[in-house]
């Protein structure tokens, strides 16, 4: 790969920082960890760009919007030949989310995924995961519902400050 | 030959996911409590996502073979009853909450074992879809198992309802482990799954949960007639009604987009 292409790849990664998750607009697709690879081929005067992405959940309706927004933002920066490829393996986990992304989530009022996955198994009636309240930082919280407003979240409530909050669940 | 097998096999997996998703989505706005309404429709969403990945792949296989333009939408919206290859279990009516829960438990437990094996498929795309979906199915198994126990070991009323559901649904569980022609061919070709090997683990899980739910174990139903046919396109009267609703828009306004 020549140097010019390397610079182009770097540039596209930084442009992709502008593309946000439509459901959680505080996160970019880079924070979320759904961009796997950027490839640039300079065959003619215009660069051919391929962006490889992966879904968080199979049925995540945000993926279609994310795909369209990646096209739009690259078009705005002058890239006309853009191809977006979806890969499924290795499957996305919350480990792919960046540390910066986790901080942004918390500031936004959504508890970020715990670093160690605790309940991603078939064990029944498992104890609720200890999740920190994003508002008052208490760990004295309880799960209200395993399924929440989007596929990636479950609903919790803080026993200390009483605020309900979303938890970006382990996956 | 292998292309046909791969196409039919992939469609079968996709149809299972789509039809159960469609059934579960009938609960939207009607769940017994808000959180469980959200849960069952979230499970629908996961299944629709899996169905989309599988239909997209089936369309790709079909187009390479036939040189025509099938899409995930044409496969979901423009095939008729006899062309659907889902098992009979997933098309059965929702009934009450107990029947919906038991159907989900039977199917998710089956799908969990199936996808675990399919991760090792020689077909890289099927393996990737299985790997991705398995994480979601893990949630479905846990959620539906907990509900089977909660209802079975709950009140006399909830226990009776679950027993009734068992009477309704047990006869459709045999088909899960009775391979259709394309499943046998898929196994021979190296990308399929040995269904008979999944059965023991499925029964063990069912017995384990049934014991906690104070329900009789699988052996007590050993003599029950098992209805098959769905995988080969011979469906119960239910599927026509499901497709009438699912496909209405594309049939009434062909090519409609929004």
Automatic annotation (TrEMBL), chain B:
Protein species of origin: Niastella soli
One Pfam family of this chain: PaaA_PaaC
Alphabetic keyword roster: Oxidoreductase
MF terms in GO: phenylacetyl-CoA 1,2-epoxidase activity
Protein name, entry field: Phenylacetate-CoA oxygenase subunit PaaC
EC number: 1.14.13.149
Top-level taxon in the UniProt lineage: Bacteria
